[in-house]
Amino acid sequence: METNQKLLVLANGFLAALAARGVTHIATDNIAFEGPFLSAWRKWQPTVQSPEVLPKIEFGAVNQPRNIIFRVDRSTSPFKNFRSEGINRTPHNSTPEEFLEDWCSELPISDWLSLADLFLLEVEARNTRPADRS
User: Fold this and answer.
1) Coil, strand, or helix at residue 116?
2) Do residues 107 and 53 touch, judged by C-beta distance below 8 A?
3) Which range marks the domain in which residue 33 is found?
4) Is residue 133 part of a domain?
5) Total domain count, the chain
């Protein structure tokens, strides 16, 4: 699988898992998205940890977290308009879980949900931290 294909599978799996968790919008600016996503990515333990399935994601590299967003924007993904229209709750007229099973079968549904959960925990943790007033 080529890098762009891996990024699209990752984007679709991640966004469908967020939809399954009831999320309709996420902040996609660099600071609000990249920090929480990268923290979640580092903690995530998918059952398949193969470079043939998942791209390498890191700051300062070719595949930075924002590339996930850019890749889905430039695709035929049912999530391609998520930044302007919100996360599609019925991708390809299916539930998010059905979409994950049919379109993101490289990993089990539980793995995708785990990534979404870790991301949401990171977002919540960052949003509840007291502001630095120094």
Assistant:
1) helix
2) yes
3) 3-128
4) no
5) 1
Any domain includes 80:
yes
Give residue-wise pLDDT tens across range 43-94.
Answer: 999 988 777 778 877 666 555 788 888 889 889 999 999 999 999 999 999 9
Has residue 124 been placed in a domain? yes
Nearest of 109, 124, 96, 104 to residue 35 by alpha carbon: 124
| Residue 59 falls inside a structural domain | yes
Residue whose entry in the numeric block shows the structure tokens 């939809």? 19
Contact 47, 108 (CB under 8 A): yes
Name the strand (E) or helix (H) holding 42: helix 30-43
Q: How far apart are CA 59 and CA 76, in angstroms?
A: 26
The string of pLDDT tens digits covering residues 94-123 is 999 999 999 999 999 999 999 999 999 999
